[in-house]
Amino acid sequence: MEIRCIKRVLFLVLFCIASEFWGQQKISGNVITGDDLDLAPVLVVNISENRSVLSDMSGKFEIEAKENDEIRFVKEGYYRVDKKLTREEINAPFNIMLKKMEIQIPEVTIKYRPTGNLAKDNQHYNESGKLQALKSDMEDYMRSPLNQPLPDNTVSKTFTGHDFNAGQVNLFGVFNAVKKLAQPKVTKANYNETQDFLKRVRNEVNLNFLKKYGMDEEQIDAFLLYADKTRSLAKRYRKDFSITVVEYELKVAFGEYSKTHKLEGTQE
After folding, report:
1. Phi, psi (5° rounding) for residue 202?
2. I want to staple 189 with a disulfide (CB 3.0 to 4.6 A). Which of 10, 104, 193, 255 is the partner?
3. How far apart are CA 106 and CA 109, in angstroms?
4. pLDDT of the residue at 268
5. Rounded-to-integer distance, Cα 193 and Cα 231, Å
6. Could you say which residues of the chain have pLDDT below 70?
7. pTM, whole model, 2 decimals?
8. Residue 81 CB-density burial (10 A; 0-12 exposed, 13-18 middle, 19+ buried)
9. What is the rounded distance in angstroms from the CA atom of residue 240 to the CA atom of residue 130?
């Protein structure tokens, strides 16, 4: 019983191998391009079986294939050809004709249409000797250095009215200059100058608005250091101290200080 089963299996295997051998065979043919000077080979591809070969210089090819396989013929400069094999083409050689691709030439637009008059057409296409000489002289002139000074771009006194400011002192200019000289130069304050400035602020500026928010003396000192750091008070006002200006700067600084510091007291 076992021997009979083994024989059946061997028979099926041999039958499958024979079917594959008989179904797959080599086909042959010839590729024609119509150009006897073009001897480059053609790529022949069996798309169904993923096989490829090159034809020889005369266009002859041979490749493994079977009925209904799709064969592709590819050559640079020619249109591709795809062919599905029939039973007749399996058993006999066949020819494939490749068509050459057309070369697209860009269109040329002629703006000037010749008249047939040689003198007139020559004037259009060629520059005259005078025009060429003029262009050459202009280029030399533009490249040459400037020998004469440029004219002053101002209105002549002949066409201007009387200048009532002539001989007069500009009082506004003098006032601004004196004011600028009178103002002290802003410089960075050292430690001692900063401490003297903060002490003067404590003595001369009204700080009751800070005490209304429940700030004690230690908290007021911490705030004054914060205001000096953020508003550069000692640097800007130690030499030009103004109670009104310093008080305003402190209130501006307090508006930012109250956003980031918790105050225990409330305003009365």
Report:
1. -60, -35
2. 193
3. 10
4. 41
5. 16
6. 1-24, 36-39, 104-112, 116, 118-131, 146-184, 264-268
7. 0.34
8. middle
9. 78
- Are the C-beta atoms of 220 and 256 separated by less than 8 Å? no
3-state secondary structure the chain: CHHHHHHHHHHHHHHHHHHHHHHCEEEEEEEECCCCCCCCCCEEEECCCCEEEECCCCCEEEEEECCCCEEEEECCCECCEEEECCHHHHHCCEEEECCECCCCCCCCCCCCCCCCCHHHHHHHHCCCHHHHHHHHHHHHHHHCCCCCCCCCCCCCHHHCCCCCCCCCCCHHHHHHHHHHHHCCCCCCCCHHHHHHHHHHHHHHCCCHHHHCCCCCHHHHHHHHHHHHHHHCHHHHHCCCCCHHHHHHHHHHHHHHHHHHCCCCCCCC
Each residue of 105-135: pLDDT tens digit?
A: 666 666 667 776 766 666 666 655 666 777 7
Distance of CA 205 to the CA centre of its chain: 59
Structure tokens at 75: 């050559």
Q: Return the number of other C-beta atoms located less than 10 Å from residue 51's C-beta.
A: 14
Kindly report, residue by residue over 14-42, the tens digit of the pLDDT: 555 544 545 568 898 999 887 766 667 89
Question: Cβ contacts of residue 99 below 8 Å, gap of 6+?
Answer: 34, 78, 79
Asked whether 100 and 34 are in contact (CB, 8 A), the reply is yes
What are the structure tokens assigned to 156, written together?
């002549």
